[in-house]
Design brief:
The structure holds two protein chains of two kinds.
Chain A lengths: L1 H26 L6 E7 L6 H20 L8 E7 L4 H14 L4 E3 L4 H13 L4 E3 L15 E3 L9 H9 L8 E7 L4 H14 L3 E8 L7 H9 L4 E4 L4 H13 L6 E4 L7 H7 L8 E4 L8 H14 L8 H20 L4 H8 L5 E3 L2 E3 L13 E5 L7 E5 L19
Parallel strand pairs in A: 1-2, 1-3, 3-4, 4-5, 6-7, 6-8, 8-9
Antiparallel strand pairs in A: 10-13, 11-12, 13-14
Helix pairs in contact in A: 2-11, 3-4, 5-6, 7-8, 8-9, 11-12
Chain B lengths: L1 H31 L6 H19 L3 H24 L7 H24 L9 H4 L1 E4 L2 E4 H23 L1 H11 L1 H6 L4 H14 L1 H11 L7 H15 L4 H21 L2 H18 L14
Antiparallel strand pairs in B: 1-2
Helix pairs in contact in B: 1-6, 1-9, 1-10, 1-11, 1-12, 2-3, 2-4, 2-10, 2-11, 3-9, 3-10, 6-7, 6-10, 7-9, 11-12, 12-13
The chains are: A alpha/beta, B mainly alpha.
């Protein structure tokens, strides 16, 4: 009898508690968090970038939530791992939208995953703001819902090319090599650089595409070394690619006057750790942001990042800022509309409005590319692996003197 | 012509190292009918162990192999005892793919938690320096790696053909039931073979980590190449693994140098299909089906 009474009382208490909870939820609809679905490459080939993106998104989330949220509601990220797979990214966004019924979605890492993801997201009428799908392939489908907050990649090397063209004849390189991986991100970058440099009279001595998933880059790098090109414009997608080329160049005593890599050297401490601090001196990479970027919002974010994860400003991966900028853009659109409506967000972002992010200003053109983004060239300087400086364009007041020609390996 | 010679030299030097990584895979299949999908992750694990010994204890990468090899041997025995031994005999090979894939995911997960996913690379004076010989630069790391591969492959050969244990392995490889009937403890042989197969990846993993920036996920790109090597060489054949690895790397490197890097893998896989059409058992494989 006592047992029955206890169970009866317990059930009554549970019912009362549940009722109170439901009543509390019902009486404060504004308390329900805004859910944002994201697919990220937390494992697989892009895991280093994917996890840096995760940090950027989470940093933005904690900043927003510590400042009152959006529309008075907290933000909650729902992150699924796509294992760097274009197939899985499809599945993840479908699940996030149809099953999890998230309010908004943010983009994944890389053009390779952004392209299939944007089609799925477009199907459900969601705005698709992303930070790492800036290659032409991401905009080739003519979708109205895609917005890239970062620098369009085709223009990545333009400051470098302009600088080469500005050099006096005695210093200007005469030959260039263009090894590039077959990736939708790298090929447009290298193609444009090559056509511009060729037009400027720089002779192409090597121009080959190699498989992105190759594990043995040494023979390709040795072929490049055998050309004795004055400069190397490398279409690398990640740290292993650029690191393998650097190692083979050093083994072959090949010291080009300049090496600029499409990606890899922008990965901060991860790049330094892989190639060794002594070899970073003079390595260049294009981009729209670095941890030392002279921008108040950027400095605040870098401070937050270091407080949470440690390190130095130079060691902060550019992916962090790209992800953080996505959140900032969407937040400004919601604040303006005072609504979570995806249709209103899309309309607002297409209105030509200028928004502010840690990467600088953002204004989307009709395709969704950031027309306000400014391209820079950054360079590792010195042999400590702690100085990552903006060096181009020279006209920008934040640019410091460029190290040219590049010092010999390990010197 | 210089490019051709350079491609040949690169192919032989790097091929020997790949042979070392594939040797364990082919040995394990030959004796146990186990397709060890985790071999790529074990290579990466070996690279991380070398990294820990070098970065935290100042132990030279080659000397460190004396520690990493026994460590991986014990790991191999533990994996065999925990997972492989329990597989049903009737669909052992198929199930081994799933089980070793699970092992790979577990190891990868542990590495991700311990080391994170940022790329790292091993460092040592011999990694960036090279010998200049007859107009070619031969990186010390590949020369030393090749020498080590030849030495270790030779040691495995001696183990297989000059020792009593080797005879047990070969007997198990040819006919497990008959081996059991003549008093060979086939289960014990299988356990030790799995341990040896995983242990030899210690050396290959060190060279892999010295020549490639890696993170816990790097094993997946590797496993497809290693499987291609053991299939071309003939499942279970050590000599085949060596011949196939060198063939693969020479073909890829020469095609990359003379034609285009984009075609290097295509040409290799076309050659693989051709060889398997003419010799389904691979270059050095057995043409009979093993009796259980």
């Amino acid at each position: 009898m006592k047992g029955h009474l206890r169970r009866f009382l317990a059930a009554g208490a549970m019912a009362a508690l549940t009722g109170l909870t439901l009543a509390a939820c019902g009486s404060s609809g504004g308390g329900k968090p805004i859910t944002i679905g994201i697919s990220l490459s937390l494992s697989g080939d892009f895991s280093a970038d994917g996890q840096a993106f995760q940090r950027g998104y989470q940093l933005w989330e904690s900043y927003v939530n510590s400042h009152g949220g959006i529309l008075g509601r907290k933000v909650k990220l729902e992150i699924l791992s796509d294992a760097s797979s274009p197939t899985q990214v499809d599945t993840n966004y479908t699940k996030l939208i149809t099953l999890n019924k998230v309010d908004l979605v943010f983009g994944p890492f890389s053009t390779l995953l952004t392209v299939p993801a944007s089609k799925v997201v477009n199907r459900y009428g969601y705005a698709f703001v992303e930070g790492a799908g800036g290659a032409p392939a991401a905009f080739a489908n003519g979708l109205h819902n895609i917005f890239d907050v970062s620098l369009p990649v085709a223009d990545y090397m333009v400051p470098f090319v302009n600088w080469i063209k500005s050099l006096p004849a005695s210093q200007r390189p005469k030959t260039a090599a263009y090894p590039t991986s077959n990736d939708p991100f790298t090929e447009p970058v290298i193609e444009k650089a090559r056509s511009l440099l060729q037009a400027a009279g720089i002779k192409t001595v090597y121009d080959q595409v190699f498989p992105a998933e190759d594990t043995d880059y040494a023979p390709i790098a040795q072929n490049v070394a055998s050309t004795h090109a004055d400069i190397v414009v490398l279409g690398s997608v990640d740290v292993p690619t650029v690191s393998a080329f650097m190692q083979a160049f050093e083994q072959d005593h090949f010291n080009p006057k300049a090496i600029v890599a499409a990606a890899g050297p922008d990965q901060g401490a991860a790049f330094v750790s892989a190639v060794g601090a002594a070899n970073t001196d003079g390595m260049m990479v294009p981009g729209g942001w670095s941890g030392t970027y002279d921008n108040a919002e950027s400095k605040a974010m870098v401070k937050m990042y270091i407080a949470k994860y440690g390190g130095t400003p130079a060691g902060v991966n550019a992916d962090v800022a790209e992800a953080y900028s996505v959140g900032q853009v969407v937040q400004q659109a919601i604040d303006h509309n005072q609504s979570l409506s995806n249709a209103k967000i899309i309309k607002y972002l297409h209105s030509g409005v200028i928004l502010n992010t840690v990467q600088g200003q953002v204004q989307f053109n009709s395709q969704g590319e950031n027309g306000k983004a400014v391209g820079f060239i950054f360079q590792w300087q010195g042999t400590t692996g702690t100085k990552f400086s903006q060096v181009l364009p020279k006209s920008d007041p934040s640019s410091v003197s460029i190290v040219y020609p590049k010092p010999n390996w390990g010197s | 012509m210089t490019s051709l010679y350079q491609g040949l030299i690169d192919g032989v030097l790097t091929g020997a190292v790949y042979a070392l990584m594939a040797a364990g895979l082919t040995l394990i299949f030959g004796v146990m009918d186990i397709i060890n999908i985790a071999q790529g992750v074990f290579v990466v694990l070996a690279a991380y162990l070398s990294y820990v010994l070098a970065a935290h204890f100042g132990i030279d990468l080659f000397v460190g192999i004396l520690i990493t090899m026994p460590a991986l041997f014990l790991l191999g025995i533990a994996v065999e005892w925990t997972f492989i031994r329990r597989l049903p005999v009737q669909n052992r090979t198929t199930m081994s793919i799933l089980v070793t894939y699970a092992v790979a995911i577990i190891v990868e997960g542990v590495l991700s938690v311990v080391f994170g996913v940022n790329y790292i690379q091993l460092h040592g004076w011999y990694i960036t320096r090279s010998i200049h010989l007859l107009g070619f630069y031969l990186p010390y790391i590949y020369v030393f790696g090749c020498a080590m591969a030849v030495f270790l492959m030779g040691a495995i050969y001696l183990l297989l053909y000059q020792t009593r244990f080797g005879r047990s392995i070969r007997a198990s490889l040819q006919n497990r039931t008959a081996a059991r009937l003549v008093g060979i403890n086939v289960d014990r042989v299988a356990t030790l073979t799995f341990g040896i197969g995983v242990a030899v990846t210690a050396a290959g993993g060190m060279v892999f980590g010295a020549t490639t920036a890696f993170n816990p996920n790097s094993g997946y790109d590797l496993i497809s190449r290693l499987l291609a090597i053991v299939i071309l060489g003939g499942l279970g054949s050590m000599a085949g693994a060596m011949a196939a690895a060198i063939s693969m790397l020479v073909i890829e490197d020469v095609v990359a140098a003379m034609w285009s890097p984009l075609w290097s893998e295509v040409v290799f896989f076309a050659a693989l299909v051709l060889v398997l059409t003419l010799r389904p058992q691979g270059l050095f494989g057995r043409s009979f089906t093993r009796a259980q």
